[in-house]
Amino acid sequence: MPHPRLARRVPRPADLAPFLRMRSASGSLAERRVATAHTIADLRRLARVRTPAGPFHYVDGGAEEEVSMRRARQAFADIVFHPGILRDVHDVDTTTSVLGGTSALPFGFGPTGGTRMMHAAGEQAVARVAARTGIPYALSTVGTTTIADFAAASGSGRRWFQMYLLADRDRSLHMLAEAERRGFDALIVTVDVPTGGNRLRDLRYGMSYPPQLTPRTFLDASWRVGWWFDLLTTEPYRFTYEEQADAGSGITTLTGFYDDRVTFDDLAWMREAWSGPIVIKGIQTFDDASRAADAGADGIVLSNHGGRQLDRTAPPLHLLPTVAARHGASMEVMLDTGVRTGADVVAAIAAGASFVLVGRAYLYGLMAGGEAGVERAAHILRTEVERTMRLLGVRSIAELGPEHVTLLTRTQPVAVEIVAE
C-alpha cells in the first residue's frame, strides 16, 4: 500500500519568523564569551585559547607522567549512582555547614598559587564571586594579592587562609595574625610539600615567576594581546607571603620557600598562634588521617595536591569512605583533586565527605573570562549539583549517603615482597 504524500504549500513570511529570531547581545565581551560554555571542560577549551602555554599548563598539568592526576579523574568517572524515583524534589536545598559556618553549596574554592598569572584579576575576582555565591574561598600563602586586599574583595563572604609551614616562623606568625585580624575564620595547613613536585609541563613550556620572554614564549604569547595588555598595565605580581617585603624590590621568587624538616609536632605552635579551626590538607594515607585526628585537627583534606607532587599516588576519593567512617564524627573530612563537575561534588558528599574543594575548575573560568569566567564556573557547578540531587531523588545535602553511590576501583593494591640477597 503506497504511503500518502505530504500536503505541501508555499511558505509564507510569517512562517519563517520564528526561525529568524536572533538573540540580543548583552553583557560584556567576556560574559558573552563564557556564556557559550556549558561545562567546565568548555571553559578549559576557552582558557587554552586565551592563555599563554606556560600559565595554562601550570594549571592543567601535574607531576611527572601525571598518573596521579589521571587516576583522580578516573575515580570520579567510575562512580556508579543509584537514583531514587518518585520523590518530591521541587525544592532542593544545597546549603551545608562546614567549620562552624554555612556554605550555600557543598563546595568551596580551594587555595591556588600564582593566580594573577592566569588572569590579572586574580584572587580578588575569585573572592568576589565566592562571596556572591555564598561559598568559602581560601587564600594561598603563594597567592598574588595581599591579605588585606583579599579581605576587602570578599566583603562579608567567608574567607579561609592556607598556610605552608615556612622555615621563617616569624613571617608565618605575622601572616596568621594578619589573617585573623582581617576576619579569616579557618586555617588550612598544606603538608604535602617538603619539596616541589617534578612538574614537567612547567619545564617544557617555560613556566616561571614572573613569565619570562624567550623566543618560544614570545611566539606563543604574541597573539594573546589581551593577556599581555592586562599583565603590563596592572601592578606587578607579589606573593601573599612577601607582602611585607620592600615594595620597591620588584618581583620575587620562591627560593628557599619549602621547609623539609616539618613534622606533626610543628602543628602545636600553629594551634597557639591561631584561635579558629585548623584543617590539615594533603592527607594521603589512613595512618596520617588518624595521626591528624590525634593531633587535634578540626578537619583534614584528603588530597594529593591535584596530582602535582608525588606521582602514582592513590586517588583521594578511594580513601574517602574508610577515613570518613573512622573520623567523620570527630572532624571534618574534606576532599579535593579531580573534581570537575557538580556530579563529582555530590558523589564525594554521598561517599562521606563533609565538604569539597575545587581548584582547576574555577581557574579555567578565570583564564577564559576573568571574573565573568569564574562566575560562569560557579553557575555551572551549582546547576550540576542541583540537577544531580534531583535525579538522585534527594532534597538536601544531609540526605546524601553511601546508598546513593558506589565507587568502582580499577586498580587493586599490590603487595611487594622484598627478599634479601
TrEMBL record:
Keyword Flavoprotein (UniProt): yes
FMN hydroxy acid dehydrogenase domain sequence ranges: 32-410
Keywords: Flavoprotein, FMN, Oxidoreductase
Keyword Flavoprotein: yes
InterPro entries: Aldolase_TIM (IPR013785), Alpha-hydoxy_acid_DH_FMN (IPR012133), FMN-dep_DH (IPR000262), FMN_HAD (IPR037396), FMN_hydac_DH_AS (IPR008259)
SUPFAM superfamilies given in the database record: FMN-linked oxidoreductases (SSF51395)
Annotated residues for binding of FMN: 111-113, 140, 162, 190, 281, 303, 336-340, 359-360
GO molecular function, one term: oxidoreductase activity, acting on CH-OH group of donors
Active-site residues annotated for this sequence: H305 (proton acceptor)
Cofactors, names only: FMN
Annotated glyoxylate binding sites: Y58, Y164, R199, H305, R308
Family as reported in the entry's similarity comment: Belongs to the FMN-dependent alpha-hydroxy acid dehydrogenase family.
PANTHER family linked: 2-HYDROXYACID OXIDASE 1, S -2-HYDROXY-ACID OXIDASE-RELATED
The protein's name in its UniProt record: Glycolate oxidase
Naturally occurring in which organism (per UniProt): Agrococcus jejuensis
